[in-house]
Amino acid sequence: MHIEVNNMNNILQSVEGLNPELDFVDSYINEFLCTEEETGAVARVLSEVSNTRGKMIRPLLLLLAARFGPQYEPLRRQLCKLGAVIEIVHMASLIHDDIIDDSPLRRGRPTVQQKFGKDMAVFAGDFLISRVMYHLAKEGMSREALTIGQTIEKMCRGELGQMACRFDPDTAIEIYLSNIYNKTVILFIEAMQLGAVASGCDEATVRRLAAIGEHLGYMFQIRDDLLDFISDPAKEGKTVHKDFADGIYTLPVLYALDQPAYAKRLREIAGIESGSPHYGELLEEMQELVAQNGGIDYAWQEIKNHAEKARLKLAALPGNGGREGLNRLICQLLDQE
Amino acid sequence: MHIEVNNMNNILQSVEGLNPELDFVDSYINEFLCTEEETGAVARVLSEVSNTRGKMIRPLLLLLAARFGPQYEPLRRQLCKLGAVIEIVHMASLIHDDIIDDSPLRRGRPTVQQKFGKDMAVFAGDFLISRVMYHLAKEGMSREALTIGQTIEKMCRGELGQMACRFDPDTAIEIYLSNIYNKTVILFIEAMQLGAVASGCDEATVRRLAAIGEHLGYMFQIRDDLLDFISDPAKEGKTVHKDFADGIYTLPVLYALDQPAYAKRLREIAGIESGSPHYGELLEEMQELVAQNGGIDYAWQEIKNHAEKARLKLAALPGNGGREGLNRLICQLLDQE
Fold first, then answer.
1. E strands within A89-224?
2. What is the pTM of this model?
3. Which candidate in B46, B129, B132, B246 is best for mutational testing of the A interface (most A CBs within 10 A)?
4. pLDDT for A66-75, tens place per residue?
5. What ipTM was reported for this prediction?
């Protein structure tokens, strides 16, 4: 079984006209993370954090949503600052996630915790959150601080919820969906909403863009879960079947566990410790069982359903660079570029 | 060698007239940490966090400093809210600290990480910080958010700095002092400063109270370091010589390491792994060496020096309940009640 999911690292280049903005976001991130008094330890960790900069999909969403508002042009710099804040929140969550997941790699590079230890990683994440609080206060963005505070809270809730479900093969798909909503989707919604509100969109447009953000968030996370079934560590910077071995049962697995055919065997494998002999072979068997039970097709279909809904909502918005960019993003998440 | 350091758990009762305020602080903490949608995992962790409520020394400092301002009475509720915020910042730092220290106990109770795992502890701490950000924004306290953002950043810096010094017997005392300044003292200063500014103290009084907070912070932390040499786990909720075994060399040890007499043997012990046979006996020998080298006396003298400076600054302030309370706090930290 082969599943085609392309790497999205080049997603930025595919959305035309946003490169200057994303360069601004990038330099604001550097500015926000830079400190006058960088002593050895802090400076090394921060520089590593900066180097593991991601795809910047959240600032991209913020800027694309902002294109629908009348204030986009005059407020470009301000929007880029907000984009930097959203990305730093994401970076902090990645650092703390990696502690939980015990991930040695993130995007093919050693994680902060792998390189500096869990201890450093805890405080590096806290450091980023404190920077976000500081900069929002400094810029007088208390409305944004309010929603970002709530967003971080929900993200924690999602992580705690996911942890509570670990190694539980009876996790309901609704609970899984609620966990990924908090963990991932909410920040996609928040990015779109912040961009739309800041650029002066009317209420209906804000709501529509937030809804599109929700679909994109689900697409992104379910796709990320699928990547755990297919990715090549060298290419994607992730290791295969790590979620399953960690007891994190994602949509393909949970769907398969719900089908009577091979669910018994799948449960058996889930009950075997990851250190056991021939565990690698068991994971291959698990992959086959999930595929045979339709788990991968189901997850893929869910992505397509969200794409369709997002496209419908997008079609009702005026045609501009924002709409074009969001359509391209949907294509990328479907690998139909 | 016996060192008398009393438990400060009853410190609150000793400052008269502040019990109603501290009850308000307590109920604001509950209110700030309470959420409508408490699902199982989050609720359990938050309830545990609430139960490990500490001595509330930081809100106490804030309220005592506020007594010097003309706005104390009309702004009492607001000051209590600020006190709750400061205490939540402290609680978050404790949860993340315990991850680093691998502490099984905090004040005689199992730590969050011991009870729920490191993973839960990471997000429980993040959750508290996000709550702080949310509530400061909600109350329109952007000036306070600014300084608290900076404070959390410095606290991280202190923890990272302390980590960078682990197992390094050549750590200079100045570096140790700079680490505890960031890790602990800064939040004492911040508590005093927030209380003084919010209640409308003039600039000179704010500066004086902040300086007193600095002395109290050093007294508190050096005393806490001394507790690692003498505490009875049942009574104090701490385990003896844990800092040393973890490679965290505090003032008594660093001073002793600087004295030629027994420094060589002390270095040898520092180089032996904590899992080695008879490690307990080695720690007893270490304790003797530190005492013989004057490390404990030196640390104790430092506490007394800060007390003297704090008292001098306090004497220049008008006599009121705030001054009385701060004087009592100094006595408690000196065990001269």
1. 105-106, 109-110
2. 0.85
3. B129
4. 999 999 999 9
5. 0.80
